[in-house]
Amino acid sequence: MTHFLAVLVFGAFAAQVAIPPLPAQAQEPTSPVVDATSALLPEERNTIELFQRSSPSVVFINTQTLQRNPFTFDVSLVPQGSGSGFVWDESGIIVTNNHVIENARQIEVVLGDKTVLRARVVGTEPSVDLAVLKVEPPAGRKLAALPLADSTKLLVGQKVLAIGNPFGLDRTLTTGVVSALGCEIDAPNKRKIRDVIQTDAPINPGNSGGPLLDSSGKVIGVNTMIYSPSGASAGIGFAVPVNTVKRVVPEIVKFGKVSRPSLGLGTVNDHIAQRNGIKGVIVGEVFEGRAAARAGLRPVRITRRGDVLLGDVIVALGGRKVETTDDLLNALESHKPGERVAVKVQRDGKETQVFVTLEQSR
Fold first, then answer.
1. Model's pTM, two decimal places?
2. C-alpha to C-alpha distance for 151 and 256, rounded to whole angstroms
3. Under a CB-based contact definition with an 8 Å cutoff, are residues 328 and 284 in contact?
4. Could you tell me the end-to-end alpha-carbon distance of the chain, in angstroms, rounded to an integer?
5. Which of 57, 129, 151, 312 is catalytic?
6. How many helices (H) and strands (E) does the chain have?
7. Quick one: pLDDT at residue 97?
8. CA-to-CA distance for 126 and 330, rounded, in angstroms?
9. Cα(110)–Cα(105) distance, rounded to whole angstroms?
10. Could you list the mean pLDDT of each consecutive 10-residue stretch along the chain, which spans 362 residues?
């Protein structure tokens, strides 16, 4: 009852007291329309625009492998792992890491709009941890390829961005800088990958195969591995330089593999050379009728008494120093079959130079 009386009293008071109307502008307050990006710094807007433009070209890769049930002996497909990749061209060529799809029996590529496509392996190059996949784009649709930069023009300190699917999380962006250039890392097949880009942009499991971009949105490398005691990002990540990718991918697309040049010879194990204090690659065998034989390279010889006579030791090829077999293979990969290259050898205690016309690897 008390509450009811209070309401009546207030109503009567309001009826007796004239309340002036509010000014027009106060009656209908207006708020200016604010552009959501107007408060952002230019660098932030650049990052946002770059991500929105580039992320549709980054794909999520799921792989499956065969596993036998130990009780029923039935074989079924089970998840193997996941990684990232990116669109190389509008026909459906996808670039990723070899270790992402290695030993997979079935591969699925998830596009930016969640479309799931079955992929086939066009070819791989384990020596630089790269693989090329092919998907068939949906009817009437063209995939958007990412533009490519020139990794020889990179500078330490410049901004980089990594887009991928770490831990299966969808299209994650991380940023950082180029920490170092000209690094070397071991490929899964133990070959050295040269001129690798080091970055502090966080790269985690699942980022492998995704693109490393510069501030204009061009691909400068393919994220491939991290250095971490814990298994998570410790601020030391590595990317295969895009110039290596530009050399390898077209050959895989055309031939299904990388067309390698060869000297047409066999070499002696590096450990034997090292145990004998030899810096260089010992020519162990020269194959008859092949490039090295035509150039007059000399192999190791064994006398009737069983003595081993050292032949040529390769110490440089094409102007690049050679101390191990891996050095020799990397020097060869900068050339093509049919090229004539200078090979510097140690012969009979003296250094000499011969010219070899490289042949197609067999």
1. 0.70
2. 25
3. no
4. 104
5. 129
6. 8, 22
7. 94
8. 13
9. 17
10. 38 41 48 60 89 92 71 52 89 93 89 89 92 90 91 93 77 90 83 87 83 94 75 74 92 87 91 89 93 93 85 94 89 89 93 93 76
Q: Which of 99, 127, 214, 327 is catalytic?
A: 99
**Annotation marks residue 186 as catalytic:** no
Cα R_g (the chain), whole angstroms? 31
- In this structure, which amino acid lies at residue 244? T
| Phi, psi torsion values for 235, nearest 5 degrees | 85, 10
**Cβ burial 101-111 (10 Å sphere, 16+ → b, else e):** bbebeebbbbb
Query: What is the residue-wise DSSP string for 190-258?
Result: SPEEEEEEEE-S---TT-TT-EEEETTS-EEEEEEEE--SSSS--S-EEEEEHHHHHHHHHHHHHHSS-
Token duo for residue 275: 């145990």
Q: Looking at 57, 82, 179, 208, which residue is catalytic? A: 208
User: Which among 184, 230, 240, 233 is positioned nearest to 205, based on CA atoms?
Assistant: 233
Task: Please confirm, yes or no, whether 208 is among the known catalytic residues.
Answer: yes
CA–CA separation, 100 and 136 (whole Å):
20
Report CA 235 to chain centroid distance, whole Å.
17
Active site residue 129: yes
Cα separations in angstroms, 196 against 51, 81, 241, 327: 24, 24, 6, 15
Tokens of 144: 């958007």
Output the DSSP codes for 277-321.
T--SEEEEEE-TTSHHHHHT----EE-TT--EE---EEEEETTEE
pLDDT tens readout for residues 167-223: 656 778 999 999 999 898 888 777 778 889 999 988 877 788 999 999 999 999 999
